[in-house]
Amino acid sequence: MRSDWKSYKLSEIGKIIGGGTPSTKKSSYWGEDHPWITPKDLSSYNNRYISCGARSITADGLSNSSARLLPPNTVLITSRAPIGYLAIAETEVTTNQGFKSIIPNDELCVSEFIYYLIKSNVNKLLQYSSGSTFKEISGKVLGSLEFSFPPLAEQKRIAALLGSLDDMIELNRKMNQTLEEMAQAIFKSWFIDFDGVPEEDLVESELGLIPRGWEVCELNDELDITKGLSYRSKYFDPLGKPMINLKCIARGGGFQHRGLKFYSGDFKERHIVVPGDIVLAMTDLTQDRVVVASPAFVPALNANEIIISCDLCCTRPKDSSYLSRIWLYYRFLTRQYKEFALGYASGTTVLHLKLDGVKKFRFPKPPKGLIEEFSTIAGSLKSLIDINLQQSQTLSELRDTLLPKLISGELRIPEAEDIVNQALDT
User: Of 22, 174, 277, 330, which sits 20 to 30 A from 421 (CA to CA)?
Assistant: First the structure.
């Protein structure tokens, strides 16, 4: 530790506050007064700052539960199921009991530095957790953990440098969201609403009115559809082949490294994903998780064979089909497919999709020329998305490399800035 750094327990640099859940039987406890954050809200959340969750509680709910009103800049840390999801409160928020949040002492630390400090030390939190059904870290134990802190000015510089990388990642994410919305809007206009088709050119079909010359088809006739590998966890091996599973597919689409495993057991060729394949989640709110395998799908793995697990399925057009992969991707994102899939889903808390929920979906099939025209436009947008994804992956790897070295004092700010500048120049 450098001479100007000081060791503090987390309880010394801020107040550690738990959360709570108002009675769900009291409707008056649930409303729009105070944002209420749960670990689920952070499960696929990628931004540093958060201002609301899926639900809010009323002032009455706040006063009749152990939930606490937390000020802006509070560092929210999930303390169970799982441990280590992080965000910084952008506004006043409350949390459920799955959090131990830190209200920083402004004279000793800044919230962004605490955020990156904890992010770099999640494994340490796990080491001090306990529990048989699921691991949990108590507020007392969390507060007893000791870390080294640089002076405030250096904390701010470290947080600003790491934050600049996260800002660029977040900007790419927003750009990709806009590009995706553009492509989906075009698909809806052309293939759902049939904009520009004269009324006299619409004819009756089993699916309602469709343009003359289109035909109603079933996905099973157009696609090869394969369920993923039923695996045994005893074959998980860091030296095995990368296996993507449900946790790797973000809600709303996109690939994430969270949950990636490596598998050394047997598998068949049909379990291998190749660029262009469309991967669908088959469990847990299936209709929200669709992704196209692309060069940016599993970046930096340097693997020729990537396996899908049994909670996913892989789809690709048959050789006899002129449907393009990009057109199918946007077809899977439509409300019509989502509603159809729900009819084949079973379960209460978690929805599991039967394979027929993919195979038996029927849709109006446009002429080849129209699909090719859309595919050219959407393909251009998708290429920009992939470029942003690749850049974000590079930035993420750079951030994760610098993070432990900056937080520990191993790397000084000027050196880290040079590394970032060199990386951005290339």
Answer: 174
Gap between the Cα atoms of 43 and 298, Å rounded = 20
Instruction: Output the six-digit token pair for 113.
Output: 């530095």
Q: In the structure encoding, which two tokens stand for residue 305, read together?
A: 């064979």
Q: Among 60-64, 175-179, 238-242, 409-413, where is mean pLDDT lowest?
A: 238-242
Q: What is the CATH number of domain 150-182+369-426?
A: 1.10.287
Helix boundaries (H) for 245-367: 325-332, 335-343, 356-359
Residue 118 amino acid letter: I
Which ranges of 188-322 does DSSP label H, i.e. alpha helix? 219-222
| pLDDT of amino acid 101 | 97
CB 318 within 8 A of CB 280: no
Residue 284: band (very low, low, confident or very high) from pLDDT cuts 50, 70, 90: confident
Please tell me the CATH code under which domain 215-365 is placed. Answer: 3.90.220.20
How many C-beta atoms surround the C-beta of residue 424 within 10 A? Answer: 14
Q: What are the structure tokens assigned to 406, written together?
A: 């900056």
On whether the CB atoms of residues 71 and 88 are closer than 8 A, the answer is no
State whether the Cα torsion 139-142-145-147 is positive or negative. Answer: negative
**Cα→Cα distances 65→21, 61, 249, Å:** 6, 6, 35
Instruction: Give the pLDDT confidence of 93-135 residue by residue, as tens digits.
Output: 999 999 999 999 999 999 999 999 999 999 999 999 988 778 8
Fill in the DSSP letter of residue 188.
I
Rounded average pLDDT over 388-400: 88
pTM: 0.82
Angle of the 368-408 helix axis to the 413-425 helix axis, nearest 10: 160
For 184-241, what is each residue's pLDDT tens digit? Answer: 999 999 999 999 999 999 999 999 999 999 999 999 999 999 999 988 888 888 888 8
Q: Which two tokens stand for residue 315?
A: 């789809």
Query: Does an H or E element contain 49, and which?
Result: strand 49-50
Neighbours of 64 (CB within 10 A): 16
d(CA 108, CA 105): 6
Q: Which CATH architecture has domain 6-149?
A: Alpha-Beta Complex (3.90)
What type of residue sits at position 424?
Answer: L
